[in-house]
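Researcher: Please translate sequence to structure tokens.
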Amino acid sequence: MQRQQQAMAAAMAVAAELGLVANDATVLQDSYRITLRLLPCDTLARVAPAEAQASAEFEVEIARRLAATASPVAALEPRVPPVAYVRDGFVVNLWSYYEPTPQSAEPADYAQALERLHAGMRGMEIAAPHFTSRVAEAEEIVGSRDRSPELAEEDRALLIRTLRTVTRAILDRAAPEQLIHGEPHPGNLLQTTHGPRFIDLETCCRGPVEFDIASAPDAVGAHYPGIDQALLRDCRVLGVALVASWRWDHHDRFPNRADERQNYLSKLRSALTRDW
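Model: Translation complete:
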């Protein structure tokens, strides 16, 4: 709770310095980054520890460039300069707030939005990590008993083996690569009155588009043209292994992570039985 209050104070102070009236803040999400709705200026603030400044600046730069391509991404707050703001031990990004709509995206619409996003990213010249850096981070978590002290040894071995084997299979396919979102799952796709908008661009990396499609509901893959279905299956297995690994990090703040840990281990075993 103290962390939330400090993040709120930092975000409201940044907004005030920029001429936005922010007398109240509502927590929309609390994980590593805290997402706030600031009122009455009606601005969305994403607040992270100051150590994440490079990641926050990267996200702002991606969003700024994609805005010029009319890609389906959330817009930065147009009333302030498009930069990451450091204040009181936090880094704050300010965004336009979108009132959510109740319906979820139909698979065809989801695929079309993702295809448009990839088109906007294709050829974008920006330094970005490779998707294998995400794998290395996951391996570091499950390979360290200090980072994942509650992980059973049998499950630790399964995750390490899967991360290495499936990543090698993906790389061996030598598929075309480009800048991709990294985690375009349903939680990162807003349904708004302005159409679908992807958020959380700090996860952008380089890799095959199938790596992105694997984060979407299974039906989306049937509507995205020209993809390698075998590669997509590999990427889906890898995606499950990555999420399963992250949930065991003792620093993880994901809600209901205890249930999610077992859920993703079960999903992984099912995927390996079905696809490998």
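Researcher: Any highlights?
Model: The chain has a mean pLDDT of 94.
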